[in-house]
Amino acid sequence: MTTGDHENRGKEPPRFMVVGCGNPFAGDDGVGLEIVHRLTGGGYGCEFRELPEGGIDLLDLFDRADIILFVDAVLSGAPPGTLHLVPLPSRQVVPRALGKVSCHGWGLEETLSLPLAVGWRVPRMMLLGIELENAAQGASRTPPVNAALERVIEHFHELRAALEMSKSPLWSDQHTYPPGEGQLSSVTTFREGAHAVHM
Length: 199
Description:
By secondary structure, the protein is an alpha/beta fold. It has a single domain, classed as HybD-like (Rossmann fold). Helix content is 25%, strand content 17%. Strands 2-1-3-5-4-6 form a 6-stranded mixed β-sheet, with helices on one face.
């Protein structure tokens, strides 16, 4: 089975997983974890997880989902609270938490190479990046990032529905949403990312 095979599963909806990333003790860097905590138990019909400590453990997640949405803080130079949707893997962006998630250097690229080399299935993957302002140890989340967090919670149903559409424009390229501008899932508000996201 390969990427996209969930489209051939009849009328059964794709298995959707949201994986929160980040450091809960470093200000805005914990926003991905907080979003997962807020969404868990909300009756959304999908699975919520925190990023495994070892990169190779990502393979266990691959077998549990058809679509995985990673949520992590990012730093690109865009205004704090900007939201980025980036299909993974991407040559422009590697989520900080997925770059080298173990001391043995196993990150997303290395982990993906294993199933792809032997023809195992790989789910469709998307990064929802939240532009951070302050990631200092012991700091609190800043107002722009808190506003972005609430925006994601408010529009999660629409975002999930958009990602479950195999021909959604979201899967074609990176998209950037400035703070406070429009819904995340509306095709009329899709904007191609103007910033390269760096970790």
